[in-house]
Amino acid sequence: MGYYSQNIKIVKLEHRFLSEKLGAGFWLSCSWIFLVFICAIFANFFPLPGNDHMDWDNLTSPPGTYGTAPVLNETGEYVSSSFVHVFGTDSMGRDIFTRLIFGARVSLAVGLFTPLAGLFIGGLLGMLAGFYRGWLEGLIMSIMDAILAFPGLVLLLLMVFHLGASLTNLILALGFLSIPAFTRVARANTLTFAKQEFVVAARGLGQNDVHILVQEILPNIIMPMLVYALLVVAYMIVAEGALSFLGLGVPSPTPSWGSMIADGKEVLDEAAHVSLIPAFIMFVTVFSFNVIGDAIRGIIDTREGKL
């Protein structure tokens, strides 16, 4: 009983340490990200007008304006009904609140799927470069340096011109540009763990390189890679917004936060809310991802320091 009681005390102390280490900002950020995910996933089930419905009687109307719009009822059909534009309307009379919810799908898709290419491809290349060194490391890092040196905006323009503007092509283009950064992170961490005693012991036991990479090195570098991927999520959401602002994002009428900000630049003087509200939502979301990533990284650094 004493052994189990001691273990329970240790678990309680670790839980208390994590709660104090993470802080209120972490949990508030998690709550906000959870809310954004819920809105994006269940957007079709909310009693909202269509994201491309235009209320010509209420152009650039301020928040809280009453209007009439086809609203989704409980049977799944759109019926004409009075509706409150909570965040107002844009220059084409489209409800900003509705477009924010549907636009979250695009921003989250870009933010979450784009780092996957860098995480898998860049992680693999970085592990190979850090583990084998020599000519392979030089070749891989030279290719990564060449990708970093090439102007990313020009590459995106070429891909959009040849492949067409779409969400899939945008994710592929940004994912390709994220590979060098993940390669560098994976290589740096692999260099650190490749010289550790447990790797030397595995070699002494006759384990092959694949076993050492998968069983010994990968479990130790996966958490730093995931934390970095979480920070890249925030960066990619901003990148999507910037590209949409330049006209390189998802084509209309599909809403995205970046395109919503761009739509309001022509009426910024008389209806600043058209751009400022989507910009604020993007800011809070990006800030929340950064807070979560920094908090998790702090915990990992603390545990590694204790080890």
Question: What does the model show?
Answer:
The protein has helices at residues 2-41, 96-132, 134-149, 152-163, 167-193, 197-204, 209-245, 257-263, 273-306; strands spanning 65-72, 78-85. It is mainly α. Strands 1-2 form a two-stranded antiparallel ribbon. A hairpin with a 5-residue loop joins strand 1 (65-72) and strand 2 (78-85). The longest helix has 40 residues, at 2-41. The radius of gyration is 24 Å and the shape is elongated. It starts with a helix and ends with a helix.
List the helices and strands and how they pair.
Layout: H1 2-41, E1 65-72, E2 78-85, H2 96-132, H3 134-149, H4 152-163, H5 167-193, H6 197-204, H7 209-245, H8 257-263, H9 273-306
Antiparallel strand pairs: 1-2
Helix pairs in contact: 1-2, 1-9, 2-3, 2-5, 2-7, 3-5, 4-5, 5-7, 6-7, 7-8, 7-9, 8-9
| Shape, per Cα inertia axes | elongated
Largest sheet: 2 strands, antiparallel
Strand content: 5-15%
**Order of strands across the biggest sheet?**
1-2
Query: What's the pLDDT, averaged over the residues?
Result: 79
Q: Flag low-confidence runs.
A: 1-15
Distance between the termini: 28 Å
Category by helix and strand content: mainly alpha
How many beta-strand segments? 2
Kindly provide the radius of gyration, computed on alpha-carbon positions and rounded to a whole number of angstroms: 24 Å
Order of helices and strands: HEEHHHHHHHH
How many helix segments? 9
Q: What portion of residues is helical?
A: over 70%
